[in-house]
C-alpha cells in the first residue's frame, strides 16, 4: 500500500528513508501483524483477573473470567473509547471556559473579548441577559455557566439542550441519554464499564451515546468560546502543504488543538523586535509561523496562517530539515516527534502541564502571561534556527491555495448576500430543487491504515459530481486543502452542474468573482458543531428533525477516540455516518448490528462501514436519495 | 524442507497465530470477513499453556505419520513438498486420525463432518501462523541448513517427556 | 529376491510399501482373490448408500510400489519347497512370504439362511450385491450389533428401508464400547428410526414362495424382512494353511518379528494371533490400524530390519454414528482387578477413563473426541500419568503437558 498520495509528504518520507529515520509508516509496518483480538474488540483489560480475550471464531471460551461475553466486551471497549474522546474535548473546552472567566475577571490580559456579538449570541442562547450589561460581566456569566456544565447538575447540559432541535431533545429524553454534566458523563461511562457493572450490551451502548452527547456539548462550547476570544472565522485565502515552509525564515510550526496557545504565538510572531532578532540570526525573511493538525486549522481560518501538514504526516514538517521549532499543546502529538527532532536542529517545545515529552523543551504556557511565554517560545525557535544545517534542508516545492474559514456565521452571511431577509432560503430552495442533492460533512483524521488522503479525494470527487455540498473540518480539511479542493478551481473542475451553479451564484454575490470553493472549510476537529448548527438551522426552518435531512457525515480515515465520540454523536444527531476503516466492534454481532442498523430506529442515524471510497460515496448517495424521498423531494 | 519451529520461551500466549490460521482458512482470507463468516473458519493449531510454559501446539507433519497410516478412506496423504494434507472430498468423518494423533492437532468440522488439520499453508511462502506471530515464537527454519547436532538438541529440548 | 504376499488389503499393501521403501529392485508378487482395484475396506458400507463414491486407492499401490498382482486363491503352502499353491494349479516360489489373508464373516448356524436375500458384508462385491438387491425392498434385518452390523443398518436406513438389528448379547458394540457407552449409542440408533433388539437371536429364516419372508426369534417374535445381513463377527482365514505345518491357534501364531513358526514366512493383519497390549494375552484383532502397523513392520523385517512388535490394542475404534462421534481405546469395561474408573456422563458428551494405578489403560469418548489421540498414545505406550492424572480426568490433557518446562530465566535472556 502506498503511504500517501501527496507528493510533498512522499518527498519528506523519502528524506527520512535516506537518513535512516523511522516514521509512523515504518512503525506501523513494524507492528504487523496487529492483534486480531484487538482489531475485533475482543480483549479486555478492565480488571486484574484478565487480560481476557474471546476468539471471534466460535472456538475457545465464550466469556472472559468474569463471565462477560463478546457482546459485553466489545460494548465496554467502544464505550470507553467514547469516554476518552469526550474527556479530550471536555479538557479542551474546560480550558477555554477557565480562560474566558479569567479574561472576564481581569486575570488573563492577553485574552480580551474579541467577538462581542458572538458572546452576546451565545449568552442569549443560553439564557443570560445581555442588554445594558458590561461585556465582561456577560463573559463571566457565560464562563461560569460553561463550567457548570462539567459537573453533575439537576438539568440537561446547557450546551447540548440549547443547540439542537426540539425533536432531538425529545428523542434524547425519551431514550434516557441526556447527560447532565460533561465530566460526570465521562465518569459514569467509566463506572458502568468497570468490573461487574453494566452487563447489558445495548444498555452500555446507550450509555456511550449519552457520553457522546456530552462530547457534542463540549465541542460546541469550545467552538463558541474560541470565537468569543479570538474572533469568529470568516473566509480567508492561504496556502497548504509543506511548501509553505520558508528556507529564509525562522519556521515555527504550531501543532495540537487549542487556539489558546497558537493564537497568541501568532499574534506575537508579528512583533518587530522578534523579527529583527530572527533576521539578525540570519533569517532574511524573519519569522514564518505555520500550522500543523487542528490548531493549524484554528490559526489558518483566523489569521491566514498556512497549514504545513496534518495528523498522520506531522513528522514530515521536521523531515524537511527547515523546521526550527515545533510547538505543541495537546492531542494527536506523536511521542515520536522528540526522536525525529533530535535527528535535526528542530526544537520541540511542549507547553502544557498535562502533556510533556521527554527530551523536549518545556515552556509552560499560562493565561496570566501568555504573550511572554509566546515570546520565549519564539526566541527558542530563533536559537534553534542558528543550528540549522543547510545541507539537510529539503523543502518540497509543493503547496496549494486554500480558502478557509467558513464558519456557520460566515456561510449565513454569504447566503444573506443572495437573500438578505431570509439567508437560509437560497440553500433550502436549492436542496429542494435538487441543485444541492444533499450535504456531506467530512471529518476525522489521516491514518496509516489508509493511503493518506486517498479516501478523501476519491470520495469528494464522487459526491461533488453528484451535487453534494461538501463541508470539512479537522484533518479532513487538511487533506482537501493540500490537494486544492478548497478552491473555486476545484468547483469548476469537480462540481456537478447544480452544485456548480449554486456555489457560483453565492460566490458572485459575495464578490469573489467566481464560485465558492468546492469544499467549505469549517474549522478544526473540535468545530464539527459548526456544521451541525447549519443543519439544525435548516431543520428548524423546514420544520423537520435532523434525522430527516439529506445530510450525512463521513470519517474516511479516522484514528482517534475523539473521532469515535464525534461519530457517535453524529449518529445520535440523526446522521448516517460513514467510517472508512473498520472499528474494533466486529467481535460482537450484537454491537455490530446495533451500531449499523438497530440504532437507526432509535435515533435515525447509524454507522456505515465501507473501506472502499467509491463504494462508500455510492452508499452515501443512496442514503441521501432515501432522505430526499422521505421529504418528498426528487431523488 | 522448511519446517515450523516453536520457541516456547518467546510465546506470549496471545493466540495471534490461531487467528491468523483461522483467517487464512476462511473464505476471503480477511479478518473482518472471516469474523462474519458462518459457520466460522477453523484454526489448525492450538495455543496451550501449563503453569510453566505456553506455546502453540502445531502439526509436525510426522515422517511416519500416524494419521496417514490410520486413515481408512484415502483422505490423508503426503504431498510432494512433504506436508501431510487432506483430500477433503475423501474424508468420511471416521475420526481415525483424531484417535491416533499424539499431538491432538486434528479436529472435527462439525458442520461438514470432516477432519480438519494443518495444511502448512502450502500455497504461501510463509505459513499464516508464522506470519501472524508478533514475537518470533513461531519461525520457519530450513532443516537442511541446520547441523544435525542442533536438530537433535532442539528435538530433545522440545520433546522430552514428562514422567 | 522374490517377496510373495498373500492378501491384497491393508496389511499386504503396507508390507509391500515397506519392502519397496527399503529395496527398489526386489520382486514383489501379491496374490489377491479380489479382482477389483485395491480399495479401502472400511468404506464398503458407504457403497450401499451412495451412488457415486470412490473407495479405491487414489494411487494404485500396484503401480506405485511396482507390485505384480496374481488374481487367484492360495490353497496351500509348501514350506520346505518355498512354494505357494494356487487354485489354478500353479505354484509360486518365494524367498520371503507374507500371509495377510485377513478374516471372513462368521456364519451362524441358522436354518434357512443359505438362500436368496441373505448377505455378509466383507468385500466391495458384497456391498454392490446388497445395494442391487435392496432396491425396492422394504424391510431388512441385521444379525449382529457390532460395528459392521450398525454400519450396514445405517446404510440401508439411508436408502429408506425399515431396519431391525438383532443382537444376542445384552448390549450392542460388545467389546467396542462399554455398557453405558453402548446404551448411549443404542439410543442414538433408535432415535434414527432403527429397531434394536438385544438378548435375542434369529432362530430361523422363513421363506414364502421361495422368497425370504421373515425371521423368527428365539423369544418367539416374528419380524418381516426382505433382506438379512449377517454381521456376527469375523474369524481369521486359516483354512489354506491348516496342513502346511505353520503353527496356528485362533490365528497364525507369530513371534515379535512377525515371523510364523517357519522363519521365512511372516504373517500380519486379521489372520494373526498376537499379544494384546492391555491383557498381555494372545488375541486376534480385526482392526485396520493394527493391520496397517503389522503389515508395515512385517515388510520391514522381511527386508532385513529387526523391529520388535510390542502388540496391539484389541480395542481401538473410532467412528461416527448418526452424527455422534465416538472413540474407544484399550480396556473399556474392566472386570475385577483394582481399577480406577472415572466417568463424566453429561448431556453433550460421555467420557470414561480407566486407570490401573497410575497408568491409563482405557478410554471412551462419545460426542466430544477432542485430543483423543493423546490418550491413545499414553495408553499404547503405557506412559504413567503422574501428576497429569488430574488433567486427564478433567479432560484437559494436551500435548503441552508432555513438553519439558522452560525455565523462567530463559524468558529474560
Produce the secondary structure layout.
The complex is a heterotrimer of chains A (635), B (163) and C (413).
Chain A: H1 7-19, H2 24-31, H3 36-39, E1 43-44, E2 52-53, H4 70-104, H5 116-125, H6 135-148, H7 158-161, H8 166-175, H9 182-192, H10 201-230, E3 236-240, E4 250-255, H11 259-269, H12 272-280, E5 287-292, H13 293-303, E6 307-309, H14 315-319, E7 325-328, H15 336-342, E8 347-350, E9 361-362, H16 370-386, E10 400-404, H17 408-416, H18 424-433, E11 438-442, H19 454-465, E12 468-472, H20 474-482, H21 488-494, H22 497-509, E13 519-521, H23 528-542, E14 551-555, H24 561-572, E15 576-579, H25 589-603, E16 606-609, H26 613-630
Parallel strand pairs in A: 4-5, 4-7, 5-6, 7-8, 8-9, 11-12, 11-14, 12-13, 14-15, 15-16
Antiparallel strand pairs in A: 1-2, 3-10
Helix pairs in contact in A: 4-6, 4-9, 4-10, 4-24, 5-6, 5-10, 9-10, 10-24, 11-13, 11-16, 19-26
Chain B: E1 2-6, H1 16-24, H2 31-36, E2 46-49, E3 54-57, H3 66-70, E4 76-78, E5 84-86, H4 96-100, E6 107-109, E7 114-116, H5 128-132, E8 138-142, H6 148-159
Antiparallel strand pairs in B: 1-8, 2-3, 4-5, 6-7
Chain C: E1 2-6, H1 10-22, E2 27-32, H2 44-49, H3 61-64, E3 68-71, E4 74-78, E5 83-86, E6 91-93, E7 96-99, E8 103-105, E9 118-120, H4 124-134, E10 139-143, H5 147-158, E11 162-166, H6 179-191, E12 195-197, E13 202-208, E14 211-217, E15 222-224, E16 227-230, E17 234-236, E18 252-253, E19 265-267, E20 272-275, E21 282-283, H7 288-302, E22 316-321, E23 324-330, E24 340-345, E25 350-356, E26 359-366, H8 372-380, H9 389-394, H10 408-412
Parallel strand pairs in C: 1-2, 1-7, 2-3, 7-19, 9-16, 10-11, 10-16, 11-12, 18-20
Antiparallel strand pairs in C: 4-5, 5-6, 8-17, 13-14, 14-15, 20-21, 22-23, 23-26, 24-25, 25-26
Helix content of chain B: 25-40%
Query: Which chain pair has the greatest contact?
Result: B-C, 45 and 50 residues
Taking the alpha carbons of the first and last residues of chain C, their distance comes to 58 Å
The portion of residues forming beta strands of chain B comes to: 15-25%
Poorly predicted regions of chain B are: none
Described by the principal axes of the CA atoms, the overall outline of chain C is: globular
Helix content of chain C: 10-25%
- Can you count the beta strands of chain B? 8
The number of helical segments of chain B is: 6
Largest sheet: spatial strand order of chain B: 1-8
Oligomerization: heterotrimer
Largest sheet of chain C: 5 strands, parallel
Reported for the largest beta sheet of chain B, the result is: 2 strands, antiparallel
Amino acid at each position: 500500500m502506498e503511504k500517501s498520495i501527496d507528493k510533498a509528504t512522499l518527498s519528506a518520507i523519502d528524506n527520512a528513508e535516506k537518513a535512516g529515520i523511522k516514521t509512523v509508516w515504518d512503525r506501523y509496518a513494524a507492528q504487523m501483524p496487529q492483534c486480531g483480538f484487538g482489531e475485533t474488540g475482543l480483549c479486555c483489560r478492565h480488571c486484574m483477573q484478565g487480560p481476557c480475550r474471546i476468539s471471534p471464531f466460535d472456538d475457545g471460551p465464550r466469556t472472559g473470567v468474569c463471565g462477560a461475553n463478546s457482546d459485553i466486551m466489545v460494548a465496554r471497549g467502544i464505550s470507553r473509547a467514547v469516554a476518552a474522546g469526550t474527556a479530550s474535548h471536555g479538557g479542551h473546552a474546560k480550558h477555554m471556559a477557565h480562560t474566558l472567566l479569567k479574561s472576564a475577571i481581569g486575570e488573563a490580559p492577553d485574552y480580551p473579548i474579541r467577538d462581542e456579538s458572538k458572546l452576546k449570541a451565545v449568552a442569549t442562547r443560553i439564557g443570560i441577559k445581555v442588554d445594558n450589561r458590561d461585556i465582561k460581566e456577560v463573559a463571566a456569566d457565560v464562563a461560569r455557566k460553561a463550567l457548570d456544565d462539567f459537573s453533575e447538575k439537576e438539568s440537561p447540559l446547557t450546551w447540548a439542550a440549547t443547540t439542537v432541535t426540539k425533536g432531538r431533545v425529545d428523542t434524547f429524553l425519551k431514550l434516557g441519554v441526556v447527560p447532565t454534566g460533561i465530566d460526570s458523563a465521562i465518569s459514569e461511562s467509566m463506572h458502568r464499564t468497570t468490573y461487574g457493572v453494566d452487563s447489558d450490551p445495548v444498555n452500555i451502548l446507550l450509555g456511550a451515546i449519552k457520553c457522546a452527547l456530552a462530547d457534542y456539548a463540549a465541542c460546541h462550547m469550545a467552538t463558541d468560546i474560541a470565537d468569543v476570544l479570538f474572533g469568529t472565522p470568516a473566509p480567508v485565502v492561504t496556502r497548504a502543504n509543506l511548501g509553505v515552509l520558508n528556507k529564509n525564515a525562522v519556521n515555527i510550526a504550531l501543532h495540537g488543538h487549542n487556539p489558546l496557545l497558537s493564537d497568541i504565538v501568532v499574534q506575537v510572531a508579528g512583533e518587530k523586535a522578534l523579527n529583527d532578532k530572527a533576521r539578525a540570526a540570519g533569517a532574511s525573511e524573519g519569522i514564518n509561523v505555520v500550522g500543523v493538525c487542528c490548531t493549524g486549522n484554528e490559526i489558518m481560518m483566523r489569521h491566514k496562517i498556512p497549514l504545513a501538514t496534518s495528523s498522520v504526516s506531522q513528522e514530515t514538517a521536521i523531515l524537511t530539515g527547515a523546521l526550527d521549532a515545533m510547538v505543541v499543546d495537546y492531542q494527536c502529538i506523536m511521542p515520536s516527534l522528540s526522536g525525529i527532532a533530535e535527528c535535526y536542529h528542530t526544537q520541540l517545545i511542549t507547553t502544557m502541564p498535562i502533556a510533556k515529552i521527554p527530551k523536549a523543551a518545556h515552556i509552560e504556557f499560562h493565561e496570566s502571561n501568555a504573550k511572554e511565554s509566546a515570546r520565549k517560545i519564539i526566541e527558542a525557535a530563533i536559537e534553534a534556527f542558528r543550528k540549522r544545517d543547510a545541507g539537510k534542508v529539503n523543502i518540497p516545492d509543493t503547496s496549494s491555495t486554500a480558502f478557509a474559514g467558513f464558519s456557520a456565521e460566515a456561510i449565513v452571511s454569504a447566503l444573506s448576500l443572495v437573500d438578505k431577509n431570509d439567508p437560509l432560503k437560497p440553500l433550502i430552495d436549492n436542496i429542494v430543487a435538487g441543485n444541492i442533492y444533499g450535504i456531506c460533512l467530512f471529518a476525522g483524521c489521516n491514518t496509516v491504515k489508509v493511503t493518506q488522503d486517498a479516501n478523501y479525494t476519491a470520495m469528494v470527487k464522487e459526491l461533488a459530481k453528484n451535487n453534494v455540498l461538501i463541508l470539512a473540518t479537522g484533518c479532513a480539511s487538511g487533506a482537501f486543502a493540500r490537494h486544492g479542493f478548497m478552491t473555486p478551481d476545484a468547483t469548476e473542475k469537480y462540481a456537478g452542474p447544480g452544485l456548480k451553479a449554486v456555489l457560483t451564484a453565492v460566490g458572485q454575490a459575495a464578490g469573489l468573482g467566481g464560485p465558492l470553493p468546492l469544499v467549505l472549510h469549517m474549522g478544526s476537529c473540535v468545530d464539527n458543531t459548526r456544521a451541525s448548527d447549519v443543519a439544525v438551522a435548516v431543520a428548524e426552518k423546514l420544520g423537520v428533525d435532523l434525522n430527516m435531512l439529506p445530510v450525512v457525515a463521513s470519517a474516511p480515515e479516522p484514528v482517534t477516540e475523539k473521532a469515535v465520540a464525534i461519530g457517535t454523536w453524529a449518529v445520535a444527531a440523526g446522521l448516517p455516518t460513514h467510517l472508512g476503516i473498520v472499528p474494533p466492534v466486529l467481535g460482537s454481532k450484537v454491537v455490530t448490528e446495533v451500531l449499523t442498523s438497530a440504532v437507526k430506529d432509535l435515533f435515525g442515524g447509524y454507522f456505515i462501514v465501507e473501506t472502499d471510497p467509491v463504494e462508500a460515496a455510492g452508499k452515501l448517495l443512496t442514503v441521501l436519495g432515501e432522505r430526499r424521498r422521505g421529504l418528498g423531494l426528487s431523488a | 524442507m522448511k519446517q515450523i519451529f516453536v520457541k516456547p520461551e518467546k510465546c506470549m500466549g496471545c493466540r495471534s497465530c490461531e487467528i491468523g490460521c483461522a483467517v487464512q482458512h476462511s473464505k476471503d482470507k480477511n479478518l473482518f470477513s472471516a469474523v462474519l463468516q458462518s459457520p466460522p473458519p477453523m484454526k489448525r493449531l492450538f495455543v496451550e499453556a501449563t503453569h510453566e510454559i505456553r506455546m502453540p501446539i502445531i502439526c509436525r507433519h510426522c515422517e511416519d505419520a500416524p494419521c496417514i497410516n490410520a486413515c481408512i478412506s484415502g483422505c490423508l496423504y503426503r504431498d510432494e513438498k512433504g506436508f501431510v494434507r487432506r483430500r477433503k472430498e475423501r474424508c468420511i468423518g471416521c475420526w481415525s486420525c483424531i484417535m491416533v494423533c499424539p499431538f491432538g492437532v486434528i479436529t472435527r468440522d462439525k458442520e461438514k463432518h470432516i477432519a480438519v488439520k494443518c495444511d502448512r499453508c502450502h500455497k504461501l511462502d510463509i505459513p499464516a501462523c508464522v506470519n501472524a506471530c508478533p514475537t518470533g515464537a513461531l519461525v520457519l527454519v530450513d532443516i537442511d541448513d541446520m547441523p544435525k547436532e542442533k536438530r537433535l538438541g532442539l528435538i530433545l529440548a522440545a520433546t522430552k517427556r514428562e514422567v | 529376491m522374490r517377496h510373495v504376499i498373500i492378501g491384497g488389503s491393508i496389511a499386504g499393501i503396507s508390507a509391500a510399501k515397506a519392502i519397496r521403501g527399503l529395496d527398489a529392485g526386489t520382486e514383489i508378487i501379491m496374490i489377491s482373490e479380489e479382482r477389483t482395484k485395491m480399495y479401502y475396506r472400511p468404506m464398503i458400507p458407504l457403497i450401499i448408500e451412495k451412488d457415486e463414491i470412490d473407495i479405491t486407492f487414489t494411487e494404485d499401490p500396484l503401480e506405485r510400489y511396482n507390485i505384480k498382482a496374481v488374481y487367484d486363491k492360495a490353497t496351500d503352502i509348501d514350506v520346505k519347497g518355498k512354494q505357494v499353491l494356487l487354485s489354478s494349479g500353479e505354484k509360486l516360489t518365494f524367498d520371503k512370504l507374507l500371509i495377510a489373508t485377513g478374516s471372513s464373516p462368521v456364519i451362524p448356524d441358522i436354518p434357512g439362511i443359505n438362500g436368496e436375500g441373505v448377505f455378509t458384508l466383507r468385500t466391495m462385491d458384497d456391498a454392490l450385491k446388497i445395494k442391487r438387491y435392496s432396491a425396492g425392498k422394504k424391510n431388512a434385518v441385521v444379525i449382529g450389533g457390532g460395528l459392521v452390523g450398525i454400519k450396514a443398518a445405517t446404510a440401508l436406513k439411508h436408502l429408506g428401508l425399515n431396519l431391525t438389528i438383532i443382537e444376542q448379547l445384552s448390549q450392542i458394540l460388545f467389546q467396542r464400547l462399554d455398557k453405558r457407552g453402548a446404551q448411549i449409542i443404542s439410543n442414538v440408533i433408535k432415535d434414527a428410526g432403527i429397531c434394536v433388539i438385544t438378548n435375542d437371536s434369529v432362530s430361523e429364516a422363513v421363506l414364502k414362495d421361495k422368497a425370504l419372508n421373515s425371521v423368527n426369534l428365539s423369544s418367539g417374535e416374528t419380524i418381516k424382512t426382505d433382506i438379512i445381513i449377517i454381521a456376527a463377527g469375523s474369524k481369521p482365514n486359516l483354512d489354506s494353511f491348516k496342513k502346511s505345518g505353520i503353527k496356528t491357534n485362533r490365528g497364525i501364531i507369530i513371534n515379535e518379528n512377525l515371523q510364523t513358526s517357519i522363519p521365512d514366512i511372516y504373517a500380519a493383519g486379521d489372520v494373526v494371533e498376537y499379544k494384546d497390549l492391555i491383557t498381555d494375552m494372545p488375541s486376534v484383532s480385526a482392526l485396520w490400524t493394527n493391520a496397517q502397523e503389522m503389515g508395515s513392520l512385517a515388510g520391514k523385517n522381511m527386508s532385513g530390519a529387526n523391529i520388535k512388535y510390542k502388540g496391539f490394542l484389541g480395542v481401538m475404534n473410532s467412528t461416527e454414528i448418526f452424527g455422534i462421534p465416538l472413540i474407544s481405546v484399550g480396556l473399556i469395561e474392566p472386570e475385577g482387578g483394582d481399577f480406577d474408573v472415572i466417568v463424566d456422563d453429561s448431556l453433550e458428551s460421555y467420557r470414561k477413563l480407566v486407570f490401573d494405578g497410575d497408568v491409563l489403560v482405557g478410554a471412551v469418548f462419545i460426542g466430544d473426541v477432542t485430543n483423543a489421540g493423546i490418550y491413545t498414545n499414553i495408553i499404547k505406550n503405557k506412559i504413567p500419568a503422574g501428576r497429569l492424572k488430574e488433567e486427564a480426568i478433567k479432560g484437559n490433557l494436551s500435548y503441552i503437558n508432555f513438553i519439558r518446562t522452560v525455565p523462567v530465566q530463559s524468558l529474560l535472556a
